[in-house]
Every structure is written in C-alpha cells, then in structure tokens.
Fold this protein.
Amino acid sequence: MPSPVRTVVLVVGMLAAVPAWAQLEEIVVTAERVSGDDYSRIPAVVLEHRADFLVQRIELTNDTRAADARAKELHQTIRDMVADATKRPGIALSYGDDFLIPITDKSYEVPLNSLGKRPDTSSTDIYVKMALGTNDNVTAGIATLAGFIKGARVSGRTEIRAKDDVGLSLVAPEKYRYDIIAKITEDARRLQSAVGARCKIELSGLSNRVSWKRSDVATLTLYIPYQIQLRDCE
C-alpha cells in the first residue's frame, strides 16, 4: 500500500515584491539586548546575522548667543568630522531615528533642535559608525569609535557628548527575507515529517516585514513574525 502523501500548506497571502527603497534602508538598533521575555515573543525560526556597523550616538551642543552662529559652528564641526572620517577606513557619519541617513561633505547641515528652557542653545544628535566585517575585532572597533569622537575637531563653542552604549546597524534587512522564509519552510517540512500525515501544517504571516532584535554585542536576530498551526489532525 503506498504511503500517504505528506502535505505542507503555506498560507502566505500575496508576497509583494520588496520596494526599491527597502534595499537602501539602514536600520539602527540600540544597545539593549534581547531579554528572556523578548525571546518568548520571537518565532522559533530566526536568522542570526552580524551587524554591518557599530554605531555610537553623539550629541553636539552649542550655546553661542546668535542662532545663526550656533548653526554655523555646529555644522562646521560635523563637516570637519566628515572630512576626518574619509581618512579613517570604515568610519562614517549618519543621522536619523530608526532609519539612518548618510552625512556627506555635501549634506552635512543636519536639522538642529533647541534645548528646552535654554533658547540660546542648539543641539543635534548624529551617529558615528564603524564598519564591522565578519572577522573584525568588536572591542577594537569600539575603541576606534571612541578615539575618533574624542579627537573630533570642534568649532567655536560646540561640545560633543556620547549618548547611550554602542549600538548596531544593518543595511537593507529586507534582503534577508527569503533566507528566513527558506528556514521557516524547512522547519515546517521537518515538523510535517515528525507528525506524519495525521496533520496539515499551515503557515501564515510570511508577508510580514522582516523584524529584528539585538542578541549579542555584534549580532542581530532577524525574523518574520509568522504563525504555524497543525490542522485537520486525524
């Protein structure tokens, strides 16, 4: 008697093509790592990936009396940091919140903020990044970041202060989508093999965007928030 056919049912909806802008995204992840509670909310199948950059967020402040002079001194400091970064392999500057925007010698005039009750003080936060290769020493990279920031040339009354611990960034996390989906479907096949033909395996949620958590000093856990169900069990 022939063995029953084993079926894995994929309920994925429409997998839209990844938009062009997603290929250029660089996401930043804070120094906070995955806790035990966080792990319970992450799917079983994930992809561990080394970050592309170590990133240190820094705050630049300036209390020169005239607003236009403050802006000029802050932007000149950033411009000088960009110039110095070109002489240091792997160092680059960016700004932004969840997604980073490159700072270059042609786009260094980043947005400035006022410091609350101090109307005569302006500030801005930017990121100093250190490229992180597969075999690069993380401790040495962090030291390089700290040394670059400490040696930054400041203009006028500009001051620089490091904020938070060193974080990570990853360029275009969506490019790992199908690596993750391949691992998920392989896991589903193994589960089907384990339960035999008694149940159908249904997967849903694979059209979700790639999510991420920091799992180690230089590693990110990438995942798609999918769900798996056993149905029609005999």
